[in-house]
Design a protein that fits this description.
Chains: A alpha/beta (246), B mainly alpha (290), C mainly alpha (318)
Radius of gyration of chain C: 19 Å
Shape of chain A: globular
Order of helices and strands of chain C: HHHHHEHHHHEHHHH
Structural class of chain C: mainly alpha
Oligomer: heterotrimer
Strand order of the largest sheet of chain C: 1-2
Helix content of chain A: 25-40%
Largest interface: B-C, 44 and 41 residues
Strand content of chain C: under 5%
Shape of chain C: globular
Order of helices and strands of chain A: EEEHEEHEHHHEHEHEEHH
Radius of gyration of chain A: 18 Å
Number of helices of chain A: 9
Distance between the termini of chain A: 37 Å
Strand content of chain A: 15-25%
Helix content of chain C: over 70%
């Protein structure tokens, strides 16, 4: 579904991504882990099109999208959630979801019918709200919501455009234990047609949702495999798991 | 155009460029540090010129005016910073820009109220009142003085930026405010000092320009637009950007007027559009960041 | 946006319209001419609201399209001798095309830079018309052709008829803009304003929407310019100098961003206040400047937002 081949990216003299390749088949559950500064976010930005690689290619559904900007990649079926909440802050949850749905349906060419009267739009927003467990706060302004609830909306917006590939950037960052559990369940329950790539610090979350794990270190791949295989790799234990445990 | 004409026009361009530099450098560095543009920067230039005019009239001394103009502009800038800008930091740059925009209107009328409608002038000091001949050229000494002053200010600022603690904070502050805070100097105070210095330089520009251009209510807006263009072209936050930007715009304007008079005044806008088209964040902008 | 909020806006718009029509009936020659001027500025301010209030693009060069609409009409009717009824839509089209072309460049930059590049483009137009021999230089062009409205018993040379046409045009622009901004297209502009990077990540071609908003706003400003040229029969570079852009931006902010009716209110208040102050003191700009600063500092939702807040509170208390 999503494939990266030999991605390289440098900032000034510093090479942040050094020949990373990834392949996510349909319905994949893939996690990228690595210490701070290992190039996870840069890799994400290369995949979503926020950055252009110096070398290498990104393929989406077999099509080369390396030269496409983020919005074109999103229309081709790839979207992301953000590490820091990145929402339409001045609007309500319902309006956020309806807006995201309308963007996904390319409804913006309609300029004479009222937004609220778009057939079925508000009902779909409500259904989506239910899916991401926001049905109780649909009419609250996003700004007034607690952080963890905003994180849920972060995922809700990404789901609105019915992506084929969903990239989640630290979905549980800054969450309480309880909120983390709810978010993990939400991710685990995503429809199987969506390929999911997640950056995550919390190894428990990773082992719960991921079927494959890639360990990044200084911009290159240190190990890749099932969670069990990765956990068993000596280099990973030393470099990463050990570092966090100790 | 023969060689002598060309040399004369080059000096004219250089003189205008140095004037633009005096205004642009404060605006640009403040933009880099605080991410807002003081649209009332021209007002400080105008106030500097008028205060200089009053002082020169009373004392008969150009040099007293040259000291008083920047001082008045710096004081006004300081008051402005404490009364408005500092309180508005949380509101974000856009509101700050709008407030400074409103102050342009206030400034023009306040100056009309105090000094009247008429155009005034400051006489160049007698030592610089003549023209000098060199290399077969005859050129007003006072204009050479402007060029020398501009270059001297540029050099001093460059040294100050490279060699002093304050300079280090400013350099770090433009790149990364967090690092700046960790350098152990009061960053707010450093920003304030830079803001006042920028205002003083605008006031200096006003006095320096007075013997060449006229002193009148509305001179602020006349200089503001080319100054903004210098900031945009040079890329905000860089001393070198303000310098080279001023040089480019000063020359483009001067030679534009001579060579294609039909489009004079048009030239600098065209240069700016071209630069933004090729390099949206300015000619010499830092390459990192968004 | 809720239905109640829509209703409140339409009410304010209806009150403004009623006041204008009453003024039309009661005022004398110069009062009616002033009314026409206000109605034209209302259109101009509403067009800028589409950019500033809805899309979040703060332009300080919007007078360029106002002026281009006016100059295009003047040029087409006096030089090309095109009938005014055909020249009017052509002039609006010219303003739209200019806005499209300028927009392509301007939307490449953001925030404070956008303010500066639009300012520069506006001044570029001003500098051009000041020097241009074709368009009369500083003296401008007089004798703009007027369409023959004898068939419906009107004449634009008569301030009462001119004001009536301008008021009707303003009402129609208001209704059209209310409709367009409440549509999915309008909501996409709000999405761009609220969070550009998120809108992009969801697949919204952000630049295309910005360009569409810029072009539409330019076209409506062009309409205002066409009416302005018809009102005075005269065009000059003063139409597009940067203070015109600045004043219309002030009207939008004073009235209330992103509400359409707010900028209409702002335009009316600004012109009336300016008239009043300039009659009382030669230093009216000082008072106007302080008034604007106070609005930005203490009532950034503008006069309309302030009124709406007070009315909400009083209905809650009652």
């Amino acid at each position: 579904m999503l494939e990266a081949r030999g991605l390289r990216k440098s900032f000034a003299a510093l090479e942040v991504t050094r020949g990373v390749s990834l392949a996510l088949p349909e319905g994949a559950r893939h996690a990228v882990v690595g210490p701070n500064g290992s190039g996870k976010t840069t890799l994400f930005n290369l995949l979503t099109g926020e950055l252009r690689p110096d070398e290498g290619r990104v393929l989406l559904d077999g099509r080369d999208v390396t030269a496409l900007p983020p919005d074109a990649r999103a229309r081709a079926g790839l979207t992301r959630s953000f590490q820091k909440n990145n929402l339409f802050m001045g609007l309500t949850v319902r309006e956020n979801l309806a807006l995201a749905l309308a963007i996904g349906e390319r409804a913006g060419t309609v300029f004479w019918r009222r937004f609220e009267r778009m057939p079925g739009l508000l009902a779909r927003a409500e259904a989506l709200g239910e899916r991401v467990r926001l049905h109780e706060v649909l009419d609250f302004p996003v700004r007034s919501l607690p952080y963890g609830t905003q994180r849920q909306l972060e995922v809700g917006l990404a789901l609105a455009i019915e992506p084929k590939v969903l990239l989640l950037d630290e979905p549980t960052a800054g969450m309480s234990a309880e909120e983390t559990q709810a978010m993990t369940a939400l991710i685990a329950g995503l429809p199987r047609e969506i390929a999911v790539l997640v950056i995550e610090h919390d190894m428990e979350v990773v082992f719960e949702i991921a079927e494959r794990v890639t360990v990044l270190d200084y911009g290159s791949i240190l190990a890749e495999g099932t969670p069990q295989e990765v956990r068993a790799t000596d280099a990973v234990r030393r470099r990463y798991l050990g570092e966090r445990a100790g | 155009m023969d060689i002598a004409d060309f040399a004369t026009q080059t000096l004219n361009g250089l003189q205008y460029a140095m004037l633009l530099f005096l205004l642009a450098v404060g605006l640009s560095v403040v933009f880099g540090l605080m991410n807002f543009v003081n649209l009332a920067h021209g007002t400080l230039y105008m106030v500097g010129a008028f205060v200089g005019f009053s002082v020169a009239t009373r004392t008969g001394s150009y040099w007293a005016a040259l000291a008083a103009g920047p001082l008045a502009a710096a004081l006004l800038g300081a008051a402005f910073y404490f009364l408005l800008l500092k309180r508005m930091q949380a509101a974000g740059p856009m509101k700050q820009v709008l407030v400074t925009f409103g102050l342009i209107f206030v400034g023009i009328d306040a100056v009309r109220w105090i000094w009247g409608e008429d155009s005034q002038s400051i006489l160049a000091p007698s030592a610089l009142g003549e023209s000098v001949s060199f290399l077969g050229l005859v050129y007003p000494a006072y204009r050479l003085f402007i060029i020398a002053l501009g270059l001297a200010v540029a050099l001093l600022l460059h040294l100050g930026l490279e060699r002093t603690r304050l300079g280090a904070v400013v350099r770090a502050g433009v790149d990364d405010p967090v690092t700046a805070a960790s350098l152990g100097i009061n960053v707010d105070l450093a920003f304030f000092a830079v803001f006042c210095l920028g205002c003083a330089l605008a006031g200096l520009g006003g006095v320096v320009a007075a013997p060449v251009l006229q002193v009148y209510p509305g001179m602020d807006v006349a200089i503001l637009i080319p100054t903004l263009i210098v900031v945009v072209v040079g890329g905000p936050g860089r001393l070198s950007g303000a310098f080279w930007g001023a040089l480019l715009i000063g020359m483009a304007d001067t030679f534009g007027k001579v060579m294609i008079p039909d489009f004079s005044g048009f030239m600098i806008y065209a240069v700016m559009a071209l630069v933004l088209l090729l390099r949206p964040s300015g000619l010499l902008a830092a390459r990192h960041g968004s | 946006m809720t239905g109640g909020e829509d209703f409140r806006r339409h009410c304010v718009a209806a009150v403004l319209l009623a006041a204008a029509l009453m003024g039309l009936a009661l005022l004398g020659y110069s009062g009616r001419d002033r009314l026409a001027e206000i109605a034209i500025l209302v259109i101009f301010a509403m067009s800028l609201d589409l950019l500033v209030g809805f899309t979040g693009l703060v332009s300080l060069g919007h007078a360029l399209f106002f002026g281009l609409g006016a100059y295009a009409l003047a040029g087409l009717t006096t030089m090309a001798k095109i009938p005014p009824s055909l020249a009017m839509p052509l002039a609006i089209l010219a303003a739209a095309i200019a806005a499209f072309l300028v927009g392509i460049l301007a939307i490449r930059v953001r925030g404070v830079f956008f303010i500066m590049i639009t300012l520069a483009f506006g001044q570029m137009g001003w500098a051009y018309f000041q020097r241009s021999r074709t368009f009369g230089g500083i003296g401008g062009i007089s004798g703009v052709g007027q369409p023959d409205l004898g068939a419906i018993g009107l004449s634009l040379a008569n301030p009462a008829d001119m004001a009536l046409i301008a008021i009707i045009a303003a009402a129609l622009v208001y209704l059209g803009m209310a409709r367009v901004t409440a549509s999915p297209f309008g909501r996409m502009l709000v999405a761009v304003h609220q969070n550009e990077s998120r809108a992009r990540a969801l697949g919204l071609p952000v630049q295309r929407y910005k360009l569409a908003a810029f072009t539409l706003a330019g076209a409506i400003a062009g309409l205002a310019g066409v009416l302005a040229a018809e009102r005075t029969n005269f065009v000059s570079p003063d139409l597009l100098v940067w203070t015109v852009s600045g004043e219309v931006l002030i009207m939008v902010i004073v009235g209330g961003l992103g509400t359409i009716v707010g900028p209409a209110l702002g335009a009316a208040v600004w012109v009336l206040l300016r008239d009043y102050l300039s009659a009382v003191t030669p230093y009216w700009m000082l008072a106007m400047g302080l008034f604007f600063v106070a609005v930005v500092l203490f009532a950034d939702e503008g006069l309309y937002g302030l009124a709406a807040r007070i009315s909400r509170r009083s209905t809650r208390d009652a």
